[in-house]
Amino acid sequence: MSTPKEDWRTLCSRRKQKQNENIPPEWRIQVPSKDVQNVMDVPYTCGLLSPEELALTDRDLDDLVADLTSGKLKSEDATRAFLKRAIVAHQVTNCLTEIFVDRALDRAREVDKYMEEHGKPMGPLHGLPISLKDQFTMKGLETIMGYASNIGKFADHDCVLVEMLYELGAVPFVRTNVPQTLMWGETQNNVFGRTTNPYNHHLTAGGSSGGEGALLAMNGSPLGVGTDIDGSLRIPSAFCGLYTLRPSYERLPYHGAANALTGQESISSVLGPMSHSLGSLKLFTKALVDARPWERDPLVVRKPWNEDEYRLVDHDRGKRMCFGMLWDNKVVKPHPPLKRAMEMVKRALEEAGHVVIDWEPLNHVDIYRVAQTILVADGGEDYRRDCEVSGEPLITSMSPEKDAHQIDLEVSLVKMLTGPPRSRSAYELWQLHTEKRNLRKAYLDHWNATAKRTGTGRPVDAIISPAVAYTAVPHGLNYDSFYTTLGNAMDYACSGFPVTVVDPEQDMPHDPHDFHNHEDAAFYKLYHHELFAGLPVGLQLIGRTLEEEAVIGMTEIVDGIVKDYKKRNNLQ
Amino acid sequence: MSTPKEDWRTLCSRRKQKQNENIPPEWRIQVPSKDVQNVMDVPYTCGLLSPEELALTDRDLDDLVADLTSGKLKSEDATRAFLKRAIVAHQVTNCLTEIFVDRALDRAREVDKYMEEHGKPMGPLHGLPISLKDQFTMKGLETIMGYASNIGKFADHDCVLVEMLYELGAVPFVRTNVPQTLMWGETQNNVFGRTTNPYNHHLTAGGSSGGEGALLAMNGSPLGVGTDIDGSLRIPSAFCGLYTLRPSYERLPYHGAANALTGQESISSVLGPMSHSLGSLKLFTKALVDARPWERDPLVVRKPWNEDEYRLVDHDRGKRMCFGMLWDNKVVKPHPPLKRAMEMVKRALEEAGHVVIDWEPLNHVDIYRVAQTILVADGGEDYRRDCEVSGEPLITSMSPEKDAHQIDLEVSLVKMLTGPPRSRSAYELWQLHTEKRNLRKAYLDHWNATAKRTGTGRPVDAIISPAVAYTAVPHGLNYDSFYTTLGNAMDYACSGFPVTVVDPEQDMPHDPHDFHNHEDAAFYKLYHHELFAGLPVGLQLIGRTLEEEAVIGMTEIVDGIVKDYKKRNNLQ
């Protein structure tokens, strides 16, 4: 006799309750009323963190790591400070899933003890608190990953990433929220609910690594790990003002992590760092690659960290580079703040002696159609099965209230391109692969052909593009992943970096243009400069496949130039 | 009004006729009668090649390349000699498809002219004649690839490999035969017919790169390029006494080549060198990788040639290595000559100070089932369509006469494992990927765990194994690809290398063992020491994924040790 199956609602609310109980009572704060849209200053005003803890959690990653690996700063102190700030962030954005304060502090003490006994750090991530998207399995914890059906399933192993992070000395200290199915650019599920954007709780933090986005925006973690199959690192990073790296397929170890669409290998999900600090990109990637992840995860490419590529040996050592600016991918035209950000970057780069030319989009609609068709080639079977187990319904809109928005986006362009969901055969999938492969070849040739226009003797060194055509939008409205899909479908190594914030005075609506399609028209109408005031505006830098080292190197240069430019011109 | 479709038989015989006409009349030889089983000495006896040409075509690749790249030897002379010898080989084994004597000689003269004008070689393959499997598209030629439907389709581009070979200075000079569908370990199709083994025309040269196998065995080419999705480089190399390298997925540029199962990317077909000369492995692989193939083929891994890995930095610099000997994969037990070859290698390695331990097979039947199921996941749709166009029938047996063999292999183990062919859904394919991924992880952990047994402090440096459980067999009987599939499914970089020849006096039948399955029993019965006398016996060396450099380096060491051992002990 089996016990009668519990209703999914009961399951979920009990699990949410358990999560609440994991918050130490003394760390509860007075949550501001819903009238307060921007909660970014709550860590400073709530009184939970001491001035030292605030200063510590506000520090740049490089300094923090230097002090941790030299033993100047105890991991326990750093971990406690970030735990507090993370739990503050959680209380105002609902960004966390797993909260395990004692375990995290125990680990921090273990690391501190190692330093005491050996007089040297455990590894390059010694003592560093790291937050993890709710896919990275940790022994003894559940990996809910947005599904009620995962409640009560405790992992008997760490995934390879976590195994390696431990060996490198890190302190995994919280796990962060995701959308059901993982396949949304927003973050909401039936177990843990919705994550909101700390700059404005009416807006999404992005997704699917949206828990990381909100947490990191509030400095609730110095470094987080998210994943990206269609923009899931870059979207929340752009919406929350963060740096990120979307590496190429199989550069970093994913084995053993939970995932949606398991076994789908046509467009592989990848993992990467997200952080307030630029230094996170090299620190995280190099630490993992130097530890030879291909000896743990059979899919990881055997490609050692290449310091020459990082020093831009293929890009004139960074001296005079040429960037292709993707002003408009001809699918959705970027909102005014994105345009201004690109103009600012262009001017800054040119003043610094680099070249900026227009990037011509090629086959973008075909690329999106093929990619999006591949991602639904199972006709939704994967989601259906994950929901069926618990009986929870499949979430079909990220909008808090149905019809809350006046903009008609019901028939999305993606759905128009991919047609109604249906199960494809293996043979049909193979044809999509062939089409994708030919699109990759065409894009490669197109890129190489820019050598004729750059004036540097080389093709464009990297493309600079919006990550999303807009800044954070109201919940339920983030339909467009077209700027990010390019990287996933072509498998380009991409970074995301913050550039500026929306300035309603400068970022007035543009005059209507000749709309590319109904979605472009809808997104045009969505722009209201007052609504978006103060929001982070990020861009992405797109390099070649498996060119992570150079993408990091170029991002550091571009970021430095933009920061100098802003300082010189007194810009935000 | 369309013209009535021509019967496929007419199409094929006219195409075969055209092939015959491409043989210069003065290069026709007196073909020995069918009573002569072994045609290996025909180049020496037929009178077509001068003593100088015979000496030139018998030279080791390293010498040949040194003289070509220094300008000491003219490419035209080398190319003419190899063309002659290739056409001799063709007349006795039917190994060629495309014959283009004038075009090849023109290219050779172009290369010679370059040397004259510039005083330096065009590239590392300067002037070297290279034969190509009938998949590597060349502008202006058809790529029949075993299908009548490809007759009359002339390519308007070179595939990336050919494009790069030209730039490296090579002289593509013939193309070689394949089986219809490419998915057999033998070589026969309705257009060009069957390729036979030059050691015995009753036996297969292997496949699917069997045209290369027969051609290279007779020194009709110094270096050939084949492909491998399930053993197609290693099987003909083992059956014909050659060296080969099966690189990991996407190390070398396949883009633009014709292929079967186009778009199937779960187990990617790869290309690699085949040759009489050991030096071919490094020469070919390094030349291509150094030319940055990822700038031409978007799927190629951006991994520069790593000379440290070639010098075995991860393997004690080759000083004291440990090899795992796969005596029996528990699916089909190797024939006596293979066992003797492994024993010889073991003794030779041990005398040279290396360690040899037994390799324990793990999950081999599961690995084969998953791999073989993936390869028929389209339910045969790909083959069906390629046959439909011309109306030619799908070849269902490689046997020259039905029921010619007394051994019942009709129900092959592969078919029993994969079940009747049926079209799988994308979702089902994803589940196979998950299973494959877990099998790869299990095999990786299994390999790493050998560190406890090797005595070197490291896991086994490489596995040594038969490529096939037997030497060349009568046409229609090469059913077993289980020793090669391991490399394709786990994506291990593997080499093939010749060890000895069948010696009927030493290689007496073994007593029957406890058969693993009915196929193992059938292959046991197949062994007749007199039938196989004098045939080449080859093994493979299996390294880690994307470890091509180290696999080449280790193969060079093992080969040298075995050659020394044979010389010291006066063995063949």
Explain the overall architecture:
The structure is a homodimer of 572-residue chains. Chain A is an alpha/beta fold and 572 residues long. Helix content of chain A is 38%, strand content 12%. Chain A folds into 2 domains: 38-303, Amidase signature (AS) domain (Amidase signature (AS) enzymes, Alpha-Beta Complex), CATH 3.90.1300; 316-394 and 409-568, Amidase signature (AS) domain (Amidase signature (AS) enzymes), CATH 3.90.1300.10. Chain A has helices at residues 8-21, 42-45, 51-58, 61-69, 75-93, 101-118, 160-167, 210-217, 234-240, 280-290, 307-310, 336-351, 364-375, 381-388, 413-418, 426-449, 451-454, 482-490, 518-526, 548-568, and strands at residues 96-99, 129-133, 171-176, 188-189, 193-194, 196-197, 200-204, 224-228, 243-246, 270-275, 322-325, 355-358, 462-466, 494-501, 536-542. Chain A has an 11-stranded mixed sheet with strand order 1-3-2-8-10-9-14-15-13-11-12, sandwiched between helices. A two-stranded antiparallel ribbon of chain A has the order 4-5. In chain A, a hairpin with a 3-residue loop joins strand 4 and strand 5 (193-194). In chain A, helix 5 runs antiparallel to helix 6, helix 5 crosses helix 8 (210-217) and helix 8 (210-217) packs parallel to helix 9. The longest helix of chain A has 24 residues, at 426-449. Chain A starts with 7 loop residues before the first helix and ends with a helix. Mean pLDDT of chain A is 95; it is low at 403-409. Chains A, B: One of its GO terms (molecular function) is hydrolase activity. Chains A, B: Residues 1-22 are annotated as: Disordered.
